[in-house]
Specification:
Blueprint: H1 4-16, H2 22-42, H3 47-58, H4 61-100, H5 107-133, H6 142-173, H7 179-209
Helix pairs in contact: 1-2, 1-4, 2-3, 4-5, 4-6, 4-7, 5-6, 6-7
Keywords: Membrane, Transmembrane, Transmembrane helix
InterPro entries: Perm_prefix_1 (IPR047928)
Transmembrane segments: 82-105, 111-133, 145-171, 177-195
């Protein structure tokens, strides 16, 4: 069928693009191809030859994907960097409030709290760096930014899993914990845990595409 060449081209391009911004770029390329096909058709070429000429003008799908990958990765890294940078202080504040309202804390909770603080001190600078490094003239090699942001995502996963585990233990072993603030903090951590897990997986795929 006449449309098969264009359809196969767009399908192959979509398969090579990262998820971020894929639909918009494919739609843009499809529109450009349609205009190019129309132009070649007006010169007397057949439908199939017009499509072949248009595809040749646009170049191979892998070339377009390779050119677009850093752009998509930069947008993705900036978005996740902002997400981690804004949720970090919010969730940290919720946990600090819950702890401050708890009359007595078991010793292991203090130890875990120290571990969480150490991890946060790693994740926070990474998140800030990711935002700054993907902004304006300060942009650096995007694969390095994605790597740093992956560290942030995995750190957030460790922090939230540990915090939820501690909360579960405290709810089962002590009656002095401020339940409502602690549960609010736990829900916030669980929400970020889902986001961080998705981010870690997405960033791993993006990093592989930037080889």
């Amino acid at each position: 069928m006449p449309g098969d060449l264009i359809t196969r081209y767009l399908d192959e391009l979509a398969a090579r693009l990262p998820r971020t911004g894929r639909a918009a770029l494919v739609a843009e390329i499809a529109g450009g191809l349609e205009d190019a096909v129309e132009h070649h058709r007006s010169t007397g070429l057949s439908e199939v030859d017009s499509q072949r000429a248009a595809i040749e003008e646009f170049g191979a799908p892998e070339a377009i994907a390779d050119e677009y990958a850093p752009v998509a990765a930069t947008a993705q890294a900036h978005r996740y960097g902002l997400a981690f940078m804004t949720t970090g202080p919010l969730i940290g504040g919720l946990w600090v409030t819950a702890i401050a309202l708890t009359a007595e804390l078991p010793e292991f909770t203090r130890i875990v709290g120290g571990l969480l603080l150490a991890l946060v001190l790693v994740a926070a600078p990474c998140a800030v760096f990711s935002v700054v490094a993907t902004s304006g003239p300060l942009r650096v090699r995007i694969r390095s930014v994605v790597t740093v942001l992956s560290v942030t995502a995995y750190t957030a996963i460790i922090v939230d899993l540990t915090a939820i585990a501690v909360l579960t233990t405290l709810l089962a072993t002590t009656t002095t914990i401020a339940v409502i603030p602690a549960v609010i903090a736990g829900v916030a951590s669980a929400t970020r845990l889902v986001m961080a897990t998705r981010g870690a997986l997405a960033l791993r795929g993006t990093r592989a595409a930037l080889v």
